Amino acid sequence: MVTMKDVALLAGVSVSTVSHVLNGTRRVDPTTRERVLRAVDSLGYRPNMMARSLRRKGAPLLGLVVPDATNPYFAEVARAVEDRCYELGLSMMMASSSGQPDRERRAVEAMTSHRVGGMIIVGLGFPEEQARVLSGLEIPVVMVDRKIQGLPVDSVQSDNVGGGYLAARCLLDLGHRRIGCICGPRGLGPSEDRLRGFEMALAEEGVPLDPSLVAWGDFTCPAGYELALEMLKDQSLTGIFAMNDLMALGALRAARDLGLSVPADLSVVGFDGISIGRFFVPPLTTVAQPIEEMGAAAVDLVVARMGSGCFEPVTRVINCSLVERSSSAEARPR
């Protein structure tokens, strides 16, 4: 799908300039205007007429609630949502729940009091509490990153099963057979799905999942560090899959503190594909979630609901991709 950002790149101007040309909201130099219009024709860009209609009616504001604004993954999701809102001429209000259901409830209440036209919620690990908070809302809601069973709202998520499979397949193809898995919280949908995909890949190679090499964390660097320290007591271990990039960073530090070289002694694969992963030492091999696509899809679903609202709940599942960098290599005995 061609976006306003694509038009701006081809025309060599900012997204705001493209918006002003198409919406007539500010005078633009005629030469620049012509360049933008040529880019529009060349790419076949079609403005979102539903969003234009909503703006004219004064539907101004979308709400976004994330679990942790300090987590780079959620920050990048927020940026993707904000970019799509900007492309459509909508504004965004954001709050962080700090992983606490009560703070999420208060954020939702504050946003509804400000008359947001729709809301995007990046899921917490408390589905019952979230269902109670969201079920009584009279505005469109889209869940990102997970789905709550029985709650009739739209959702956008990555293929976590496929992502776990990609991570395991990467290590298996490099000859690793003793692979540790540092999971997110037990019982959390993405954690369980990634583990299921991981186990599927192992089964294809006839490699049993060793329960002693599965540890449950909380998606933080300290958890990755402590769990990797314990896991690396197993001298036969040559690879670790951490279910997010922050825990992978903790595992990299644990390996360094134990005098192990990555990837010579240990390969590490993360999950999320946050932009700072390429600056880790060594740069992190990771399963990248389609963050920009997920953020844009969530906004588009909310806008569609605001425009009509009369269709069955939609679940969009978008494929992940493997990004191979220097933290993974062929297996060697330690």
UniProtKB/TrEMBL annotation:
Signal peptide: none annotated. Coiled coil: none annotated. SUPFAM superfamilies: lambda repressor-like DNA-binding domains, Periplasmic binding protein-like I. It comes from the Bacteria. One of its GO terms (molecular function) is transcription cis-regulatory region binding. Keywords: DNA-binding, Repressor, Transcription, Transcription regulation. Residues 2-56 form the HTH lacI-type domain. The keyword Repressor applies. InterPro entries: HTH_LacI (IPR000843), LacI/GalR-like_sensor (IPR046335), Lambda_DNA-bd_dom_sf (IPR010982), Peripla_BP_I (IPR028082). This is Transcriptional regulator.
